[in-house]
Amino acid sequence: MRRSPRESIDSARKISRRALLLGGAQIGFGGLLALRMRYMQVDQADEFRLLAEENRINIRLIPPARGEVFDRNGMVIAKNEPSYRISIVREDAGDVDEVIRRLSALVELDEEELNRALSEMKRSAPFLPVTVADRVSWEAISRIAVNAPALPGITPEVGLSRQYPLGPDFAHVAGYVGPVSDYDLSKIEDPDQLLRIPRFQIGKVGLEAKLEEQLRGKAGAKRVEVNAVGRVMRELDRREGQAGANLQLTLDHRLQNYVQARLGQESAAAVVLDCDTGDILACASAPTFDPNLFVRGISVADYKALTENPYRPLANKTVQGLYPPGSTFKMVTALAALDAGVVTPDETVYCRGHIEVSNRRFHCWKRAGHGHVDLQTSLRESCDVYYYDLAMRVGIEKISAMAEQLGLGQRFDIPMSAVARGRAPTKAWKKETYDQDWVIGDTVNASIGQGYVLASPLQLAVMSARLATGRAVEPRLIKTIDGVEQPHRGGETLAVDEGLLKQVRKAMFAVSNNRRGTAYRSRIIEDAFRMAGKTGTSQVRNITTAERARGVTSNSDLPWERRDHALFVDFAPYKSPKYAVSVVVEHGGGGSTAAAPIARDVTLQALYEGDPPLEAYPSADRSRIKAQQERLRRERREFLSTDRERA
Asked: By the 8 A CB rule, do 579 and 556 touch?
């Protein structure tokens, strides 16, 4: 049907309007696209360039060199050594079994480690390197380099690993490192990314663990170009990390070596302190172990031998071990009573061999009794009844307060594992701990370092140093960090009258130098180096009625683990104290027979800075001491020779 001219005009007008609207919309949309493209290509160009770069470039951490540890004279205690290892890349190797066969013909491969590597290869991407042998020799690396064309995918690598040149001597102080474990990571709230590097070593125990962050250092980084599947194509740049801090300890390696050798295979501990500074010069726990065994993972057999040893070689007895201090605590009770004014140095107490308290008989070690004894006689001959009497007069609160002032019942701030607080018990402590009231018998027991009283060998050495100087000597283990001297702590004058301290020192001198003293046989003959000391014997268990019926009356009749602990503390020289020493021999029997001879020898070794002349010993002991010195020198030479071979 023909449309009229008017209808054609109206239709054309409508079409033109629609075309105009559609065209405008298209132009507007195109403009928006253009603006968006400009925004993305110009304004956001840097951001998208960075995103593209991040897809192509990876940042990888470079482990820093761990800080090294030295003794006070610069002898290396813990160092880093080159560690050569062999890795394999599965996709480059092709026939892995054939390459491994060729490699085995050149170097000896540990079967267990090889099986672990093969299992790891199956789980890992084919382009990732897997270690098949660790801590291999330079000669083995050289053979691999020469035969490289026949070993596709095999790469010799070098890194750093921890090594302890003096091995067992410093095992309990320095501790050791080991590969990071899931357990290690679980204990850290925000772990450093370094810890996620496979086989990265961190401190496990001892100083290595306590000062981990300072020793670890800061990671470096390298930028590497990778392809779409993450394979490294090339290294673009590198920023080396910051090495960990070097530590210098207060310990003297020569004295430490002697003390460790002198303790031998006893279950024992000894500490030597500088009375002036509080520096720990020796801190030995026996028996010891080789920390190098732990660095790469100790074998099941070696670990079992350590954990099943009844002498507990893994425990650091110097700070972890807590023992009833026995008669070495008598100076605390005496000072508490003297300071409170309940007794004078010349006042006597009658000892008839026991005392009756609340229908219970508390015995003196000398069943026949000591008769009338004053302060000096009671310490010299270690009369128990004298201290029972003083304790009941002065009370446990003042005894415990004096103990804390002398360093017992304190956890000292030194970087070693599981530093124990010990215990200077009070009435409130017993009520809180056991929900029981304190009784007078508890005070009587505490007066001679039994019952609830506990102390570590380090605390006993501190006590001896404080008695010697009248100052609040604080132990120090770290001498310098990266060459910066670390401050001494403490040193304030004790709140005890100096005259009373002199009386106690005089009595301790008699213990070692009076013919009736309990440590007279372990005296020092050289006048300039005479020592003041105190023996101690602490009960582990009472002899039962059944055992008495079988004729068991002494330590030697009991099994080793039920015998008394032997203790000794001293300071020397008496007139100008330089060193304080404590020795604990677990289940050693008597302090005068087991601990005092060791402490005397250690004290002389410190005073002479080496083997002392035989003239410093009692004449009756000189032939035995000569043989002992020769044996210890031979053992120490053999140890150092073996250590150099290991290094």
From this structure: no
